[in-house]
Amino acid sequence: MTSNSVITQVLETDIWVKATWEEFLAFADNSTWEKGKFYYYQEQIRVEMSPVGPLHGHQQSILSSVVSLFATLRNIRVVQLINASFRKTGIHEFQPDLAYYIGSDLRVPPKDNNSPVNLNEYDPPNLVIEIGASSFNDDLGSKRLLYENAGISEYWVERANTREVFAFAINGGGSGRIQESRVLLGLEIRLVEEALNRSQTQDDGEINRWLIQTFSQG
Hints:
By secondary structure, the protein is α+β, with helices and mostly antiparallel strands. It is built from 7 helices and 12 strands. The chain folds into 2 domains: 1-50, no CATH class; 54-217, tt1808, chain A. It has a 6-stranded mixed beta sheet with strand order 1-3-2-6-5-8, sandwiched between helices. The chain has a 6-stranded mixed beta sheet with strand order 4-7-9-10-11-12. α3 runs parallel beside α7. The relative contact order is 0.13.
């Protein structure tokens, strides 16, 4: 049972709050907070309420199009999960905006249930993306450490207000910034940012046609 003090801190402070795994599960599995995004790391919990406006939603769709079209045109196997939770019991849980299984050598979870992905049975995604506005500093801080620990291969953070993309390759528990994707070879991060910038003046069809033309030339 989650204590009232934990609930109050999580909802009112928008920071990581000390909690047991049992408290986290009671919170995460409570339908009252079904619109929340849940994270657990180093015996701390963070909950972010899902954005409801077009800024986050549209930029998420642009990032999704970039990855999906690039993988499609380069004949790369890809499975995309949106707002899915990934759980390693008693250790950590994360719920990125976008997550991808890229390539053919990963244990991909089945698509026939709505439970958190059990990371004791399946591999973690090798690319995760967070879109940050108020959470941007945390995306670069504690979440980055969480993803380093979780075995993610590549992590992108998009600063929603400026459309900058900070991409990191993760190896051996540490991460370093990159200008070209390591899991989508040939995809330059500057092209991801250009697609986001084009979204300010162009509709999705125009952007997708530009992406197809650009990726086909590669």
